[in-house]
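Slide 14.
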Amino acid sequence: MADRPVHEHIKDLSNSLVILSDKVLKNFTGAMETLLSAEDRIGEDIKLADGEIDASEVRLEEQCLVFLALQQPVARDLRTIITILKINTDLERIGDLAVHIFERVPEVSHVFLRDFRFERMGGMAKEMVQKSIQAFVNQDRQLAEEVCEMDEELDTMHRAVFKKVSVEIRDAGTDTNQYIVAMSISRYIERIGDHATRIAREVLYLVTGEIVRHTEGSFEKLIQSLKD
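Slide 15: predicted structure.
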């Protein structure tokens, strides 16, 4: 490893990260298609891909750690490797959330789900992940900031689901499980958006050298939505 220029190693690691993001997005897309379609689908592909994602995440982390030990990068090169490591972790967690969505599908009716906005929510979350990775590739500060702005819109949709469930579940009698599943699915999608936002913030750190703090308060906003 030591006989190659540092920038070539970083390029290889960045390419591996992009490949991982493609796998994660494909799995998320498959999970959402299963959720939104009335057709039965085979889920083994999604679970198999999740295993590949986990293995790729571990492999990329190991490669980054070896690079840090042998090359001892400084300044921007060091920021780049730290950014890759953090994005790598976020992508793995997005992959896990996609599997969680898929696993809840048998518990809920497709007809029931039509009353929610999961197609739009899923589409926005996917777009946020895509744009955050593109921002990393191009080191595009403006695109990263756009992803951060999109997060509030996704949060608003999640709060709308929370409010809808909170109102309708009171009249659901004993049949409350589907509402609980809908709430969980909404939360999974919202969490994917949060991870995309984290990736965008890591890009901002890479480009500017400044750490962008995450603003908490999602729970408080959910509670407030019930009062509005």
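Speaker note: The chain has one domain: 6-227.
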